[in-house]
């Protein structure tokens, strides 16, 4: 039986149309899924990262510590708390924008160095940072000295009167704990106490936490500065 060309053309067109429609539907579905995945990844990043520096925030650091705990047997870790010396003075002298540039520069150095030695870094609040590093073959004192010297390298920042070169040092508190110890209730608290001893001794140095150590004298300022609290309300550092 002879089938007219018009009928053949109609059948071919219908078949191709159905196939094309199926392809377009699958493509649209795939694009929608990819978009949702990207939006979810972005939402997760905003929850766990500091928008100013790109480092983990406090929530992100908790997540990293939880992952370390869940990764296998307990292991010794080095927790380093880093507080920039005289940052407020530099911030007041050169302005908030320059202060933010200083924070970003310090964060880049801290983050890259932490990654280099197999660890992770976070900005906790204001000019305070932290790093978690597997102890492994590292010597805690050597790690702290490395962070101290890298942070203290001069950095050029833009100001209203042109670029200036600024040197910012840091006080470091170092604590060695088991990965199963509480992060904030034990590890960061010990590093915090040691850090304040380093700051009381003039800064630009580190102090290793020792058993029985307590906070030195009057407890200095804690928590984020006003501008950081304002930034927190818009989704910045946790």
From TrEMBL:
Coiled coil: none annotated. Residues 75-211 form the GGDEF domain. Residues 200-238 are annotated as: Disordered. CDD domains: GGDEF (cd01949). Residues 218-232 have a biased composition (Basic residues). Gene3D superfamilies: 3.30.70.270. InterPro entries: Biofilm_reg_signaling, GGDEF_dom, Nucleotide_cyclase, Rev_trsase/Diguanyl_cyclase. PANTHER family: BIOFILM ARCHITECTURE MAINTENANCE PROTEIN MBAA, DIGUANYLATE CYCLASE DGCP. This is GGDEF domain-containing protein.
């Amino acid at each position: 039986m002879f089938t007219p060309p018009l009928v053949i053309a109609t059948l071919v067109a219908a078949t191709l149309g159905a196939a094309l429609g199926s392809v377009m539907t699958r493509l649209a579905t795939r694009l929608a899924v990819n978009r949702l995945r990207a939006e979810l990844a972005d939402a997760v990043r905003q929850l766990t990262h500091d928008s100013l520096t790109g480092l983990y925030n406090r929530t992100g650091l908790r997540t990293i510590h939880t992952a370390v705990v869940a990764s296998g047997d307990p292991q010794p870790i080095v927790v380093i708390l880093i507080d920039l010396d005289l940052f407020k003075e530099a911030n007041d002298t050169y302005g908030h924008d320059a202060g933010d540039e200083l924070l970003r520069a310090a964060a880049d150095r801290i983050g890259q160095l932490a990654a280099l030695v197999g660890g992770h870094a976070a900005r906790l609040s204001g000019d305070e940072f932290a790093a978690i590093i597997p102890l492994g073959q590292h010597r805690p004192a050597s790690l702290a000295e490395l962070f101290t010297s890298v942070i203290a390298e001069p950095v050029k920042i833009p100001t209203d009167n042109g670029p200036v070169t600024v040197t910012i040092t840091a006080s470091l508190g170092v604590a060695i704990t088991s990965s199963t110890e509480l992060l904030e209730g034990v590890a960061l608290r010990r590093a915090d106490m040691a850090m304040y001893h380093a700051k009381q001794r003039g800064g630009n140095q580190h102090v290793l936490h020792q058993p029985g150590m307590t906070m030195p004298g009057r407890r200095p300022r804690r928590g984020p500065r006003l501008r950081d609290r304002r930034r927190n309300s818009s989704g910045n550092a946790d």
